[in-house]
Amino acid sequence: MSIFQTVSFSEEDIVALKNIIEIADKVPIQVKREMSGIWFHSDDWESQLRLLILGNFRVTISRACFQNRHQGTMTSVLRYLKEFCQRHNIKEIVAQSVESREMVNWCQKNGFTPDPYASLLIKDILLGDYKLPLES
β-strands 58-65, 92-98: how paired? Predict the structure, then answer.
């Protein structure tokens, strides 16, 4: 018996996340389903959120940028993702390829820690992947 289970975003999840982004970022958002996740983006691609799911093991935030920053968009998305992970018994959320001080600060503020196997110190900023372990 395998403990790995296939998990995907339901239509309700997609609508909820799309609404979170549209309300906070104040732009219309398009949705593109992918094999292992979903990509939310504005028409001009200035606002983007890409989420990937690795079974019931991990949700990865692989792209996050918004036109209207400091509106709480990522914090609201994270709140939703934590609930999603709890419903599906997913053990961690990863912010992949964190490349800015702003996102490093957000990760640290929200309990993420650098993945020692996927991080690199550049000019006093630890860039790379940040992991948030979740309780069952």
Answer: parallel
Location of structure tokens 């036109």: 67
Q: How does DSSP classify residue 55?
A: T
Q: Quick check: 25 and 71 in contact, CB under 8 A?
A: yes
Tokens of 4: 């790995």
**In degrees to the nearest 10, what's the CA dihedral of 2, 61, 114, 3?**
-10
Residue 62 corresponds to which tokens in the numbers above?
């692989």
Name the pTM for this structure.
0.90
- To the nearest 10 degrees (0 to 180), the angle between helices 11-25 and 73-87 is 170
> pLDDT in tens for each of the 136 residues of the chain?
457 678 889 999 999 999 999 998 899 999 999 888 999 999 999 999 999 998 888 999 998 988 878 888 999 999 999 999 999 999 999 999 998 899 999 999 999 999 999 998 998 888 999 999 998 5
